[in-house]
Amino acid sequence: MAPAEISHAPITFDNINLDVTQSSPTGVTTRRILSNISTTLTEHRVAIIGANGSGKSSLVRLINGLNSPTTGHVRVGELDVARQAKQIRQRVGFIFSDADNQILMPTVVEDVAFSLRRHKLPRAQRHQRALAQLDAMGIAHLANNSPHTLSGGEKQLLALASVLILSPDIIIADEPTTLLDLHNRRRVASELAALSQQVIVVTHDLDLIRDFDRVLWIDNGGIAGDSTRSGSGGARGVVQQYEEAYGGV
């Protein structure tokens, strides 16, 4: 497990507002999803918690350009996400809560190798690199299986392998343990804990983040709690405040 003092290139949210437009039989309305978000993330492992619909997933999707802010700027190091999206996506890997959304190929090894499709590598070399990544994740024995036959935990490990093979600097995992049983939750948690990259996890799973370096609590589109704030009580204090407000669900 990486030491807590590790610091990474800053991910900066500068006065972010995010609005979405919704159509209904009565007309078009605009709803604010995120409001006046300004913060910088440098910690090794950062947890984003909050109730359903609070805006936490919308926040992390700004980091690699899956969402675009209505106003404000997001930067990863010196890169502006809006202006340098291609470079950003080479640095930021994203894992969705439902790993089925990231499965594209008929076998496990082909699915991992597919991540290298834009690299100028011979097919055999892509295949060998994919096998090596699967071996590192402890699932090389599944290489020739259909991804759709895997357990929930194995699918999440496959999704992680498909991201890690690109050597990103930042891993974002959006609810990575939501659909998993206890055994598979622990497998995924162990793999995330071992990563040298900066890890940002959106989750309701408070056990998963008990030793994270920083916790942000998002509520109604704003930052309701931040473990780096004076008087917050640190990560445990923010989690406790969240549990008292929402029962940890």
TrEMBL record:
InterPro entries: AAA+_ATPase (IPR003593), ABC_transporter-like_ATP-bd (IPR003439), ABC_transporter-like_CS (IPR017871), ABC_transpr_CbiO/EcfA_su (IPR015856), ECF_ABC_transporter_ATP-bd (IPR050095), P-loop_NTPase (IPR027417). SMART domains: AAA. It comes from the Bacteria. Coiled coil: none annotated. GO terms for cellular component: ATP-binding cassette (ABC) transporter complex. Belongs to the ABC transporter superfamily. This is Cobalt ABC transporter ATP-binding protein. It comes from Corynebacterium auriscanis. The lineage of its organism: Bacteria, Bacillati, Actinomycetota, Actinomycetes, Mycobacteriales.
